[in-house]
Design brief:
Radius of gyration: 24 Å
Strand order of the largest sheet: 1-2-4-3
Distance between the termini: 32 Å
Helix content: 55-70%
Largest sheet: 4 strands, antiparallel
Structural class: alpha+beta
């Protein structure tokens, strides 16, 4: 294992010191800090630290992009004496003023952070399940596996059981985010998905419970009602803990939460979620009414949406659409930006004059091609030039145009990249999906090569 002590110490100093850190966690490529005072951070100094690929403020957090070795960096960071002396522990937010600090962030930042906290833990599982269902679907189409067999249904379920039972899983992570009992929250999600209940809830039909008639909503594959329910239940739980004797809380608090919020979820939050969902579907139907335009927009700009952290607000909607109709256009088109970035990095790796830039681009291209992680490419290469950012948009747009003309649609959730490619075998018009990939990579590569050779991009010539 490499020694990242010096890297970590420089980062700590330039985020305002260990005492300025409320919490620090990491994702696939980034250290994610909650800072008490963001004005004490020095982003420019951090960007210049060897081993740092970029810096970003997103979702109320201060992100330091490290790359795929971030888990090792984090493990060594959390063991530093100054971090331990500040009372910080791995994966825990120990600062009592963290909620107050969060309130100072913008409403949109808080929303995207909530969506990230709730959905992010399931993204690797979704991707894995997408691969499993894609491969088994291909084998069924080739006649190798019977679609009625237990073998097919087992591998198919790895993805679609996750989609169907999302309310249970999301309730658990929502409970952790909203700081209520996550196991009570998960039980709430399980209660509304219990077959005896779920089978009686046919969306749009009139149902009756405890003598109250209401418009039913089926919760399979949904996410809005359960988030609303757990959010409200978290405040009710806090209220109960203030007014119920501690020796009685063990039974009374979870019982009261479930006895009240399971019926409320069915009677109130489900129909509300249905109305919100119908509005979202209406907007989506307008976009999908012209698939070519929709795919051009997603192909050109979804990488920027990811860069801004806004994908957590969009991805659940697309997953919900997929769960309902069995396919979805935006997920396929959105990946074209990733392949455009791959083309850019390949060109920089070949034509850049600086050896360090060649190495950075090669490493970023390998990570992108293998597992679809684009942050090293975006921060290490693309964002260093506005022309390369424009190249990414243009190249992704070209790929999106190809997919739109071919009406390509995803039938599983999957990342871009080699490891997830099997999940795309079952995509609607898979051959055109491959043409879109080649187009995005090719246009990105050719435009970048031209910009570098003509001297219009000089950032990689020193």
């Amino acid at each position: 294992m490499s020694d990242y002590t010096d890297l970590n110490k420089q980062i700590i100093v330039n985020v305002g010191g260990a005492d300025n850190i409320s919490n620090v966690v990491h994702c696939a490529t980034r250290l994610r800090f909650n800072l008490k005072d963001t004005s004490k951070a020095n982003p420019e100094a951090i960007r210049k630290i060897p081993g740092v690929l970029g810096v970003q403020n997103a979702g109320g957090q201060f992100h330091v992009l490290i790359g795929t070795q971030v888990d090792e960096v984090y493990e060594q960071l959390i063991q530093l004496p100054e971090i331990k002396n500040a009372g910080l522990k791995a994966g825990e937010a120990v600062d009592e003023n963290l909620d107050t600090a969060a309130e100072k962030t913008g409403l949109f930042d808080r929303f995207t952070r909530m969506m990230s906290d709730v959905f992010a833990p399931y993204i690797p599982v979704l991707a894995t399940g997408g691969i499993a269902s894609g491969v088994i679907g291909l084998l069924a189409n080739l006649g190798v596996v019977d679609s009625a067999s237990l073998t097919y249904q087992t591998f198919y379920a790895i993805f679609y059981s996750l989609i169907y039972f999302f309310p249970i899983l999301l309730a658990f992570t929502a409970g952790k985010h909203f700081k209520c009992n996550p196991y009570v929250a998960a039980t709430l999600g399980a209660a509304i998905m219990y077959p005896g209940v779920s089978n009686l809830l046919v969306t749009g039909d009139t149902a009756s419970m405890i003598g109250i008639k209401f418009t039913a909503f089926n919760f399979g594959g949904s996410f809005i009602p359960i988030l609303l329910a757990v959010f409200c239940m978290s405040y009710f739980e806090k209220w109960l803990k203030k007014h119920v004797a501690k020796n009685m809380q063990f039974i009374i608090v979870p019982a009261a939460c479930l006895f009240i919020f399971v019926p409320l979820t069915i009677l109130v939050f489900g129909p509300i979620g249905g109305m919100i969902g119908n509005f979202v579907k209406w907007i989506y139907s307008i976009l999908s009414g012209n698939v070519v335009i929709m795919d051009i927009v997603f192909g050109g700009f979804f990488s920027i949406i990811i860069l801004l952290g806004m994908h957590w607000a969009v991805t659940p909607i697309m997953l919900g659409i997929m769960a309902e109709q069995g396919y979805e256009y935006g997920l396929a088109a959105g990946g074209m930006g990733n392949y455009a970035v791959l083309g850019i990095c390949l060109a920089v790796a070949i034509f850049a004059k600086n050896a360090d830039d060649k190495t950075t681009a090669s490493s970023a291209a390998f990570t992108n091609a293998l597992c679809g992680i684009t942050e090293p490419s975006l921060y290490g290469i693309v964002l260093r030039s506005k022309l390369l950012l424009a190249t990414m948009v243009i190249s992704g747009t070209c790929g999106g145009l190809v997919l739109g003309l071919g009406k390509v649609a995803a039938t599983n959730f999957a990342f871009s990249g080699i490891l997830s490619f099997g999940a795309w075998f079952g995509a609607v018009n898979f051959p055109m999906y491959c043409v879109g990939i080649i187009t995005s990579i090719g246009v990105g590569f050719l435009l970048t090569a031209f910009l570098l050779k003509s001297g219009k991009v000089t950032e990689f010539s020193k």
